[in-house]
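REQUEST FORM: STRUCTURE PREDICTION
Request ID: SP-0412
Submitted by: Lab K.M.
Chain count: 1
Length (residues): 403
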Amino acid sequence: MAAMGTSAHAIGFKAGEWEMDISGSVNAYYTSTSCDNVGDGAGIFTGNGTALHPCGIDATNGVDKQNIQNGLLPGFIIFSASTTQKGYDLKAVISIDPGTSTDGGTSSALGSGNLSDAGGGRGQIVGDQRRVYFSVGNATMGTVKAGRDIGLFGQNAILNDMSLLAVGGGSAFNGALNTTLGSIGSGYVYTQFQPQITYTTPAIGNLSVSAGAFQPVARNASVTGDRELGFQGLATYSLGDMGKLWGAFISQGNEQTNTNAPVADISGFEVGGTLNFGSLGLTANYFTGDGLGTALIGFGGSDALAQERESQGYLVQATYKVGDTKFGVNYGVSSLDATANDRATATRILDESEQLTLGVYHNLTPSLTIAGEYITNTVKYQLGGPTQDAESDTIAIGAILFF
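STATUS: Completed
RESULT:
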């Protein structure tokens, strides 16, 4: 599920007029997750599909789950080819992003579409293909990208999450998800890797601006009318070695033509930034939206009558480097507002999900990072009958290798 990483160790060679590069990453973590309180049952989504459950699936009070699994990043290998022809910079990128999850982990909660074959502890995830796109442009015209790649909305939140190289939340879903969650659902909405046609302007001083049309996110299987494209935009202002600031938006209209029933739209914006003061790094991100949800775009964003729920959340993070070791703490909260229909029907939904992560990350070599994290996650619910909070605590230890 998680976003891409970067590698400074690409294997490069020349083939005719093309520069070819191969880069990649592999990681593995031991995780131990203790379910302190189940709260609103078990399963990936609880609170009537509005919350990611911190105990994972098949949760029981007091039960510990121990896994060997991927962290927030899957394994990946990226093939890229670039050249310049007639004054245009051309580039093509294809990636393969496999995970370590097996069908012996928990259960096939995401459906058979992600299964290689059943039984026997064999690999569950065939291999996600997150990036397959080409781009064309130059310093004068800017750059056009077409294909599948990371989204614009939510991109900077996950790429600056310190758990990108480790685990964060979601370790108890091993066997159902290809990765863990970082602070997805407890601080920011997952950007996702989406089919898109985006345009990035030429550099405007320290400002970079991108905008594009995206494959619509379908969140209502009963809708048989028009599928409208989504739109996203991102502006980033570089502060050089001091860091950067950003702002992004997302918008997707929906229209159902076969009936007069309403269909919820999706809209939202976010702002954030990173600031560096020597060894100290500070990061913050805030989002809000209607129909957006709190974890995956659109999930839990509307009620049974397609009335849009408002959501909001923030992530704050501080890291400090001592030699080759970085210490970090981040804290995130995502919350959902009930609609009039939710309140009238007493439909239990998410109130807020909060997560605290403490981490230590040591660069044993320029290519290998050893990491350890402690994560505690609490999900609170609103409406319906009295429901205790869902709570979990996780310890994660492992490493990630880039090449």
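NOTES: The chain has one domain: 29-70+150-402.
Reviewed by: T.R.
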